[in-house]
Amino acid sequence: MAELIYPELSYKVVGILFKVHSKLGGEYQEKYYQRAVALALKEENLPFKKEIKVDLTFNSEKIGKYFLDFF
Q1: Cβ pair 21, 36 in contact under 8 A
Q2: What is the pTM of this model?
Q3: Digit-coded pLDDT (tens) for 18-60
Q4: Centroid of chain to Cα 31
Q5: pLDDT band at 4 (very low <50, low <70, confident <90, very high)
Q6: In whole angstroms, what is the distance from residue 70 CA to residue 26 CA?
Q7: Is 33 helix (H, G, I), strand (E, B) or coil?
Q8: What is the pLDDT of residue 11?
Q9: Of 1, 11, 22, 65, which residue has the fewest beta carbons closer than 10 angstroms?
Q10: Is 25 helix (H, G, I), strand (E, B) or coil?
């Protein structure tokens, strides 16, 4: 298993994601989970940016753009 670079932060974020999913369940559109995760991150005072545009590459070649939900 790979070693986590930021284990404490990683566990905190995963905990937030599980909390959101357990409260909402699995039947809603993605945008509602994004909103709930953003609220939960704010409640935990975790800084983040939403919908960051990044280059998508394949074999070191740029093939397009992609949006990360959170960064």
Answers
A1: no
A2: 0.82
A3: 999 999 999 999 999 999 999 999 999 999 999 999 999 999 9
A4: 12
A5: confident
A6: 19
A7: helix
A8: 96
A9: 1
A10: coil
